[in-house]
Amino acid sequence: MESGNALHLALAGLAILLLLSLCANLWQAWQNQGLAGQLAALNQTYAQASAQWERQQASLEGRIDALSVQAADQQVSLSALQYRLNNTQASLDNQTRARKRAEEQLNASKGELASQKQSLQNLTAQFRQLQADLTDSMGWFRENAVLPQTNAGAKNLGERVMEDCVDNHALNLACVNYVLERTATITYRTDPPNSMTGTADHLQSVEQTFAAGSGDCEDYSLLLKAIINTARGRDRNLTLTAWGAGSGRFQVYPKASLTDVEKYWYYDGAQAVDMGPLGDKPVWVVCFPYLSQGHCTVAVGGRITDSGVSLAGAQVFEPQDGQYMGTVGQEFSVCAPERQSNCWSMQRNIILMVTDWDLYKVQGAGWTSYGQLYEELMTAVPAQPSP
Could you read off the pLDDT of 237-254 as tens digits, one per residue? Predict the structure, then answer.
């Protein structure tokens, strides 16, 4: 009985176990069914998400391709801009260097301009001084064109020449030298060496010649020119008489019209040479190569006009003794430096002239004068307005 009960208990226990197992299986099946539904829902959600992701990926890939094209285009533009920037930078660098060079050149030009301005001011001052010197020089010739009446010796000489050497309006040029030596005690001295070069000679004023009591050929000629001009001012009908080679005697002193004289001075083997009326003829000092050096004498005639000067036809005499020497155009010529390169070696070829207000000399390939230089300077440096 007890064994039957045990069996019954065992069966009952087994049945309970089977029942529990079935219940567990049912429970598991139920859970699996729920999980399967969830899994299906999840699979569906995944599929939807996958499709959406694929669509988004495709969209993103399209945008990426578009952006890639845009980026490529921008890269091309950027490269072009970089190229232009490099060129612009290079151009800017070149312009900077050019500006720097220009500034340096400008500064140098400013310095050079300042230097040139100072040089111009200095040169202008020198020109002004040279203009003043030239004005003084031309004034010097005017002052020495006649005998200075403020000098007692010169005044007395002028009076003696008119009294002793002018006979019936004719001025005896040989007599003038006689009076010079005995009344004014002025004698001739030999030219120093190289006098024609101007390196060892000095043109004395009439006052200086009186003070020195002597003069060389230029000084003597300048003095004779002043005597003739002074005499002309006192006798407008004056004629000039020189002397030349002849068969008789040419009386030097006293005047030939004086017959009651016991002694007189003369040149033997000589005769008078009438040089004609003085009138308004120019009187010149002319200098030329002569023998081994230069020599200066006096010429009368030619012309002086606003358009120029000419010695053509002027008569030349020796101021030391009044001897007639010839005529310009015959025995004498005037240097033409534009076609003569040897003027300094041609005998009696005039290369220097002194008028009553100017000095003309051969310089280079032409003639020049103080007046010409003065006009050139006045043109080069116009007069400055008063401050």
Answer: 999 999 999 999 999 999
